[in-house]
């Protein structure tokens, strides 16, 4: 991550509290243009893909911005999320919050129960800490398999990937091939963390309160911890690994990443 990227994760001098909004929200040069471009991208995606378009939301801050934009601009985009069975209660609470605030349905995809039971019986609840292979196996059955069902029949999906999130994502394009014959639309690719929180503050977007506890990137509870000031955005994900902090949800020829 570059120095500029680290600085956007650093609290503003004199921030009054630890709320993510007070720590990070600020309007920077070009925000209005970036916002307008995102709305244009979403409109173009609807025109191009129609009912084939889906927002895959991790319920993280970026994805909450996108859901708000979909609702605010009355865009006909289906919204879906993955419930891995290991999410924080705070994350799951956002599903009814979205449905109540926007009147939109969030379709929830879960892993196959038998596969989870077999994996846990064989390897234990904490298998992910024992080896990279077991961690990836857990991500495979709890995330990748239900994601494949989520995306079946779709021609494009919208994600909250941003270039600033990590070095792995530094070249995230607005539109890319997902490696499975679909378009993956990273409509916030050029947004900063400050932009995300400026939008959330400006439009009163609901968000995960764990973001107020220094968790910029939130995944499953056993695999997410808070980060310290100056640490990489994704340092709290699979923190015990020396891996690329990714689990394959966004593995393509151009981008390896995960928002969940
Ligand atoms: S993030 Fe952790 S708990 Fe969630 S699917 Fe991957 S290894 Fe399993």
From TrEMBL:
Which Pfam family is an annotated match for this chain, by its short name?
Answer: PAPS_reduct
The protein's required cofactor(s) are namely:
[4Fe-4S] cluster
Question: What subcellular locations does the record give?
Answer: Cytoplasm
What pathway is this protein a component of?
Sulfur metabolism; hydrogen sulfide biosynthesis; sulfite from sulfate
Q: Which residues form the active site?
A: 247
Entry-linked InterPro entries: PAPS/APS_Rdtase, PAPS_reduct_dom, Rossmann-like_a/b/a_fold
**UniProt KW keywords:** Cytoplasm, Iron, Iron-sulfur, Metal-binding, Oxidoreductase
Q: Which GO terms describe its molecular function?
A: phosphoadenylyl-sulfate reductase (thioredoxin) activity
Which residue range or ranges hold the Phosphoadenosine phosphosulphate reductase domain? 54-226
The record lists the catalysed reaction(s) as: [thioredoxin]-disulfide + sulfite + AMP + 2 H(+) = adenosine 5'-phosphosulfate + [thioredoxin]-dithiol
Q: How is the cofactor bound?
A: Binds 1 [4Fe-4S] cluster per subunit.
| Enzyme Commission (EC) number | 1.8.4.10
- Asked if the record carries the keyword Lipid biosynthesis, the reply is no
Detail which positions bind [4Fe-4S] cluster.
138-139, 220, 223
* Entry function: Catalyzes the formation of sulfite from adenosine 5'-phosphosulfate (APS) using thioredoxin as an electron donor.
| Classification via NCBIfam families | PRK02090.1 (NF002537)
- Similarity comment text for this entry: Belongs to the PAPS reductase family. CysH subfamily.
Q: What is this protein called?
A: Adenosine 5'-phosphosulfate reductase
* Species assigned in the record: Roseateles violae
Q: Which gene name does the record give?
A: cysH
């Amino acid at each position: 991550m570059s120095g500029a990227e680290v600085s956007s994760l650093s609290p503003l001098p004199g921030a009054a509290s630890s709320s993510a909004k007070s720590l990070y929200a600020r309007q920077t040069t070009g925000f209005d243009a970036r916002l307008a471009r995102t709305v244009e991208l979403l409109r173009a995606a609807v025109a191009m893909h129609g009912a084939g378009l889906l927002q895959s939301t991790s319920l993280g801050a970026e994805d909450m911005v996108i859901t708000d934009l979909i609702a605010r601009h009355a865009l006909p985009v289906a919204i879906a999320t993955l419930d891995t069975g290991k999410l924080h209660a705070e994350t799951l609470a956002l599903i009814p919050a979205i449905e109540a605030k926007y009147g939109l349905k969030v379709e929830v995809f879960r892993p196959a129960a038998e596969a989870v039971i077999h994996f846990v019986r064989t390897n234990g609840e904490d298998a992910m800490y024992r080896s990279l292979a077991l961690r990836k196996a857990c991500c495979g059955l709890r995330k990748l398999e239900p994601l494949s069902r989520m995306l079946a029949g779709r021609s494009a999906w919208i994600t909250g990937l941003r270039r600033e999130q990590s070095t792995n994502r530094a070249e995230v394009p607005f539109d890319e091939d997902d490696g499975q014959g679909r378009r993956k639309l990273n409509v916030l690719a050029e947004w900063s963390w400050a932009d995300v929180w400026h939008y959330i503050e400006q439009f009163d977007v609901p968000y995960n309160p764990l973001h107020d506890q220094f968790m910029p990137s939130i995944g499953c509870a056993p695999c997410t911890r808070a980060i310290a000031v100056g640490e990489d955005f994704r340092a709290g994900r699979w923190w015990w690994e020396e891996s690329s902090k990714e689990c394959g949800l966004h593995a393509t020829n151009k981008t390896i990443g995960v928002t969940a």
